[in-house]
Amino acid sequence: MKPSLVLKMGQQLTMTPQLQQAIRLLQLSTLDLQQEIQEALDSNPMLERQEEGEDFDTTDPLADHVETKANGEAQEDSFQESTYQESAPSNGSEGGEEGDWNERIPNELPVDTAWEDVYQTSASNLPSSDDDEWDFTTRTSAGESLQSHLLWQLNLAPMSDNDRLIAVTLIDSINDQGYLEATLDEICEAFDPELDIELDEIEAVLHRIQQFEPAGVAARNLSECLALQLRQLPAKTPWLALAQRLVTDYIDLLGNRDYSQLMRRMKIREDELRQVIELVQSLNPRPGSQIASSEPEYVVPDVIVRKDRDRWLVELNQEAVPRLRVNPQYAGFVRRADTSTDNTFMRNQLQEARWFIKSLQSRNETLMKVSTQIVEHQRGFLDYGDEAMKPLVLHDIAEAVGMHESTISRVTTQKYMHTPRGIYELKYFFSSHVSTSEGGECSSTAIRAIIKKLVAAENQKKPLSDSKIAGLLEAQGIQVARRTVAKYRESLGIAPSSERKRLM
């Protein structure tokens, strides 16, 4: 075969930079989009925020650049003329005016604000003597880890150098839940033999750390954790002695909900056991969770849904994303026939600004279309709750709005809708379906809501098993297997029936 040149005609789909930018903005969450907009405002001088009460400038800045430039030159000439007239000294008063001007300048010019109104000094952060509600923990524990909180208390405790070294090693072995992960033998072997640290010293330091806050920290198991918390309660606390005996000797029976065996072993009545268990349940089995180690995450709704005269209205959250426009002053500096470097840069910035604004408009229109269709399909949920949720998949919305399923997936990811029933992610309204005995369909979200309702109304002495719940659902015409009920129950965070047993 000989190599040859052949000319062919064909069609090919190409991802233009504009389309790539629109897709990237479409899948961003509200907080990420705000950051993207701020970066665009910082890098592109043609973009600016539209203030409230202003309208978008719909005229083409390039078409009016000649008039804008002429007006600018006229204003500049008038400004120079007025400046010259104001700065020109009057006859015979040049020296006197200069002397009077120097005399009128005060030593300290007045200001509108004080330094403490803008900047916080170390002295202003300290509590005043009259502030009785000042709390050190609430103002200084944001983002604090459990280890740093324990080390802060360690610095306030008088210890020898060896004990402090042991304490730091023990604190490093405490996990986020507040439990000591390593055994004392493992910690003892980790030290240098020349230090001559014995196991009794490590256990003595451990007892001192267990007196730190939060109560129950540095425990080696659940029984010790609960016992440490009970030990710090006042001695006059009701049922304290029985609670200490319960968590020390019979913690396994309590975990298995074997109340009859507990009453027989502890020789107490049912009402007394109920009081003891209530005291134990008031304790925290994970003391380390009290110290926040992560920053809070905020959710900003993209869409707001409200009811007006028996109609559900859908609107975008205008306060979440700022409105942008092209700066008419900078856009007027662009000249059509100029090919200089500065003009080419400004022209490119103007084109990128227009693309960015158009991509934002496309994102808002797509989000509005998808949200409207979701509300139209899930009116029953908005009126009656989770039990009225209908089955919905991405293909249904894609056909309704005339878009691809991948586009619907991007729109509904990390986007939130504010409804009278709460804030939900758009993905929440999509669920699979289960067939009913009458030939209809029931969404998995509705089944979860029914299971939650059945568990809330069950007899706590005899909780409903998964098979019993499946039978109750079948009585309502919903055909669900026991394994499916177990899967839905676990997704709701509901414990099995053996763990839900309570004393009435």
TrEMBL record:
The Polar residues compositionally biased stretches are: 80-92
Recite the lineage of the species.
Answer: Bacteria, Pseudomonadati, Pseudomonadota, Gammaproteobacteria, Pseudomonadales
InterPro entries named among the record's database cross-references: RNA_pol_sigma_54, RNA_pol_sigma_54_core-bd, RNA_pol_sigma_54_DNA-bd, RpoN_core-bd_sf
Cross-referenced PROSITE patterns:
SIGMA54_1, SIGMA54_2, SIGMA54_3
Q: Which UniProt keywords apply?
A: DNA-binding, DNA-directed RNA polymerase, Nucleotidyltransferase, Sigma factor, Transcription, Transcription regulation, Transferase
The chain positions of domain RNA polymerase sigma factor 54 DNA-binding read 344-502
The RNA polymerase sigma factor 54 core-binding domain covers: 136-330
Homology family: Belongs to the sigma-54 factor family.
| Keyword tRNA-binding (UniProt) | no
MF-aspect GO terms: DNA-directed RNA polymerase activity
> Has keyword DNA-binding?
yes
Quote the Gene3D superfamilies the UniProt record gives: Homeodomain-like, RNA polymerase sigma-54 factor, core-binding domain
Name-wise, this protein is RNA polymerase sigma-54 factor
Location of the region described as Disordered in the Swiss-Prot/TrEMBL record: 42-105
**Annotated function:** Sigma factors are initiation factors that promote the attachment of RNA polymerase to specific initiation sites and are then released.
